[in-house]
Amino acid sequence: MASRQSVVKLVTLCLLVTLCTQATCYKILGINTSPSRSHVIVQDALMKELARRGHHVTMVSPYKESEQVPNYRKITVPMDPWATDFTKTIFGTTNSRWAMLQLLPEMLRFSVVPVNKTLRSPEFQSLMKEPERYDLVITGIMSDAVFGVSHILNCPTIIVCPNAPMAVVNSLVGNPTPISTIPNMMLGLTNPMTFMERLANLAGFLFDEAFATMWKYYQRKSYEELFPPGQYPSYDAVRQNVSLVFLNHHFTKGSPRPYVPAMVEVGGLQIKDKPSPLPEEIRLWIEGAENGVILFSLGTNLLSSSIPTEMLSAILETFRNIKQRIIWKWDTQDMPNKPANVMLTDWLPQDDILAHPNVQLFITHGGLGGIAEALFHGVPLVGIPMFGDQPVNLAQVEKEGWAYVLQYTELTQESFSKAVNEVLHDPRYRENVQRLSLLFRDRPQSAMDTAVFWTEYVIRHKGAHHLRYPGADMNFLQRHSLDVLGFLALLTVAIFKLISFSCRLCCRRRVIKLKKQ
Which of 164, 326, 416, 457 has its CA 20 to 30 A from that of 360? Predict the structure, then answer.
């Protein structure tokens, strides 16, 4: 009898656990069509963790996934080749800001191609015909057409922004951007800014607004092609359906800035608390390096094989004359005149490599993700900024004392050798980064726990509309009270005009009265 009661209790407990699990198990659709794999990596880290915590996750992106995670389904829509031409164009600009500005319209026009291809693909169309209903859509930036998918699925949207927010991202949730304290990412300024720098920052702010207008033009055009007006809500209406923005940014990596409740910092989201085992060849290379290892990567957008010949020779000669081993993210099968202490690999687990204590230096283009990983693991940098937010990212860490920044146009064997050897042999670089690493790690919750909490919060509260800042639905004049200030200015002018008119009238009457006397 006692045995039967125990069985009944066990079955009841199992049922309760099952019901509780089902009650908190959500269906989440992730879509990220970014040509930059590093952007997808940040979002994919969140998607996999949500799957590990029991949610049913479907992720659509251009990149195949080898890792098998329960409850995680991957749908791959391959991207058209583009990186080679883009890389050659970037290196051809000689790091000129003006040349990069000229490239922006073409880059924005191209940005809508992957999302159009993905949403029209047979794989995605088949997904949309499934009877499953989703509780949430998570997507990246530069894919506003996905907001139409959220409307069809009748669920809220979360954006994963791979860096600090630009004006167009801020506008999704009405986040303020004080011009006096938030340096423009294209200018490479850091706080505190001088008067002239704040003047330049004003110009940067106006550029950001123009950039946002251009961004919305291409995104609106893409959205309306996929979701024709009259049949679906307007582009502006679906943008208002964004419930939350995650930022792969942290105040210890840049200027502290104000945030509305619907914008949450999760800097270092892609960083694992416990590193995964390294591939055997890489592990042996690192652990066999008596003098330590240097990691060299220009990220996922820039192909190292497109580096101009003179610059490549300068880098190789520097590596040939140092004792450390180098792991280089290189995209072809061979490298001309490769030194014996250099290992080439077309893809590498960057976070896991930086976590190894034998890694002494990271040579990087200055992407925010790589800087976060280096900071987390306490590895100093040599930075070679190329475009976008990279100059301001590296300007900040150089100011903090754990990076040597070398401009691409100034890279010679002498300058590159000086940068590498200074960071390797001056202990201040490592001391500074390890001190700041403690700040970066010291949080009430990890970046991943924070992101998971807010993801589930948005679902639990059906979009959490109470988080929405009223300023998000105001135009520029209203949000900055320029209409009120304008009204007060006109009112003040009118009052002074009235007073002036009254005074003139009184004086005229006084004069007439005196003449009569």
Answer: 164
Asked if residues 278 and 358 have their Cβ atoms less than 8 Å apart, the reply is no
Provide the pLDDT for residue 164. 85
Contact call for residues 397 and 364 (beta carbons, < 8 A) = no
What pTM value is reported for the model? 0.85
- What 3-state DSSP class applies to 294? strand
Residue from 442, 273, 449 nearest 373 by CA: 273
The per-residue pLDDT for 82 is 56
Query: Which of left, alpha, beta for 141 (phi over 0: left; psi -120 to 50: alpha)?
Result: beta
The whole-angstrom separation of Cα 323 and Cα 108 is 44
Question: Residue 192: is the preceding peptide bond cis (ω within 30°)?
Answer: yes
Q: How confident is the model over 158-173, as pLDDT tens digits?
A: 999 988 888 899 999 9
Quickly list DSSP for 242-289. EEEEEES--GGGS------TTEEE-TTTT--SSPPPPPHHHHHHHHT-
Asked whether 142 and 34 are in contact (CB, 8 A), the reply is yes
What phi and psi values does residue 165 have, to the nearest 5 degrees?
-75, 140
Query: Is 60 exceeded by the pLDDT of residue 7?
Result: no
Tokens coding 419: 């940068």
Q: Which residue has the tokens 């005229």?
A: 508
